[in-house]
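Consortium newsletter contribution from the modelling node. Members have asked for a concrete example of what our holo predictions look like. Here is one, prepared for the zinc ion complex that several groups have been discussing at recent meetings.
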Amino acid sequence: MIDSHIHADSRSSEDFEKMFVGGIDTAISCCYYPYKISSESVLVNHMLRILNFETKRCKSYGIDLKVALGIHPTNSLKSNNEIFKLLQQLIDGKKIVAIGEIGLEELTNDEIINFKNQLELADETKTKVIIHTPRKNKLKVLKEIKSIVLESIDPKLVIIDHINQEVIGEVIDEKFMIGLTVQPQKMDVEEAISILTKYGFDDFLLNSDISTKPSDPLSVPKTIRTMEKMGLSEKNITKVAFANAKKYFKI
Ligand SMILES: [Zn+2]
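And here is the predicted structure:
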């Protein structure tokens, strides 16, 4: 299985052990620094830690960790030249599978500028982007995200993540990939399965988003196993277990 969105840097090695035994072979770690950022160098260090250290730590527990890096909306600073330079280098060197997670949270000016600049970089370099949608004011912020995305980037490069039952109508008819995050306080296994059985399995990726917030490192295997117990078709289960993510990120 592939868990398409985690935060390896904020989790224990015991989690990785559990995930591997639970059937996770590959995970994508996204960039988000959970504390206050005082300067660009803090975020650069955070990015290099994920890239150079967390990948090795996961590997020692059997998990192939792929990396997505970018400026999370809550990590937005006024000046980001150093980070953009690093992102460009990492994209050129094929060191990251996506720019992410990026997006909007409070709709501040800095957030919007950073978001647009990262979408433009992704579009120019044909890089995938993982876009976060917030817990608060999800629909309002999602509408803003959608309008900026549609004017900035090829929608086929875009994953809109943390989509739930209430807001799915806003994205289902677009060419985006849709991320379903099964996490305590966000969405349970049943809601994820009801979305998949209603809208089909082709355009969805599953993830746990394990982070500093309440999380379940086994939420992807639990969702997959529940679908198996329910007797859903193996072909469909395979798509969200790993095949969609493998094909989309070319991993
Ligand atoms: Zn996340």
